[in-house]
Amino acid sequence: MGRSSSVVGTILALWAVLVVPGECHAPFFIFGDSLLDAGNNQYLNNSHKSALPYGETFFKRPTGRVCDGRIVPDFLAEFANLPLIKPYLEPGFSNYTDGANFAGLQVNEMKYHLTLPPYKARDHIMKLHLKLQLSYFEEMQKKLKQQEGEQKAQELLSKAVYLLSMGGNDYMHAAMPSFGKSTPPLLTASYKKQYMVVVLSNLTSVVKKVYAMGGRKFIFQTVGPLGCMPSNRIGSGSKGCAHDVTVLAKTHNIALSKARYLQLDIGLFAAEYANLPLIKPYLEPGFRNYTNGANFASAGAG
Ligand SMILES: *[C@@H]1O[C@H](CO)[C@@H](O)[C@H](O)[C@H]1NC(C)=O
Ligand SMILES: *[C@@H]1O[C@H](CO)[C@@H](O)[C@H](O)[C@H]1NC(C)=O
Ligand SMILES: *[C@@H]1O[C@H](CO)[C@@H](O)[C@H](O)[C@H]1NC(C)=O
Ligand SMILES: *[C@@H]1O[C@H](CO)[C@@H](O)[C@H](O)[C@H]1NC(C)=O
């Protein structure tokens, strides 16, 4: 996660823009995939529950993050003088005035992959898909109103900053034959386009619902150059980055960065997920020089 620093730098600047001066307390709500999950995955009661060991560098204990240190929301919370934003599913967590984290490991938007001929739907049920994250958010909104009163809760939801990271897993499933256990999908251009439209419209529908509940300040973390992730470089079968999946990511980012796509009057920012260093996976054969770091995580696939 060495790449975090440039992302954090960009997003910190955005935060400064999003939070109106003087409005010192804005809660922080987080939706998305493993890049943002602060540990929800470990509280699931189904077979998707995970027990990630990472956390040694900063927390000195496993935290459920797919990262040995802190993740982007942790740095943002610190910048905004908020405590670390807790995973919504953490037992006993019930005070949401500072925000809550709904993100989940290995999340993609589509509960099932699309069944579009000639591709078979993959029976790959994701853990905390975006729709489920939204329903937890709705549940939280009700509790917040009970605790803080209707008016105060509404004020908090309107002032809040919403961070979303979504799409990477969708595109890897769609375009990387090696991702998951499926056979190569041999995607056609039109299928990919259709797929992206669904991913974007799912994401949009969540943003619109949060908007309807009062949310006005959104940060989208863009999807990184997926094809250059170590696992995908290996999976691409060639020596370089996998091409198709990176194109999907770039196209997604362009679409997202156009505020008019959403047709909402909101503060909308895309935080570029840039400078992804090519940190080699620890297990890559012949890789013995760790000067530039090594990738022990599976976030490359999360
Ligand atoms: C998991 O089970 C516990 C105990 O039954 C329950 O309190 C908790 O809400 C469940 N968590 C989820 C995410 O369903
Ligand atoms: C929730 O936490 C805030 C501080 O973060 C505190 O001011 C407030 O009293 C707490 N609310 C409840 C209901 O405990
Ligand atoms: C995404 O959109 C598709 C097609 O409209 C729908 O079937 C699916 O349930 C949506 N998924 C989520 C997580 O919203
Ligand atoms: C390891 O990599 C660093 C940076 O690329 C390089 O400066 C160093 O000489 C390498 N060490 C060995 C033992 O190859």
Automatic annotation (TrEMBL):
Q: What protein am I looking at?
A: GDSL esterase/lipase 1-like
Q: Name one GO biological process term.
A: lipid metabolic process
Q: Which family does it belong to?
A: Belongs to the 'GDSL' lipolytic enzyme family.
Molecular function GO labels:
lipase activity
Keyword list (alphabetical) reads:
Signal
Instruction: Show which residues constitute the signal peptide.
Output: 1-26
Its domain of life?
Eukaryota
Q: Which organism is it from?
A: Punica granatum (Pomegranate)
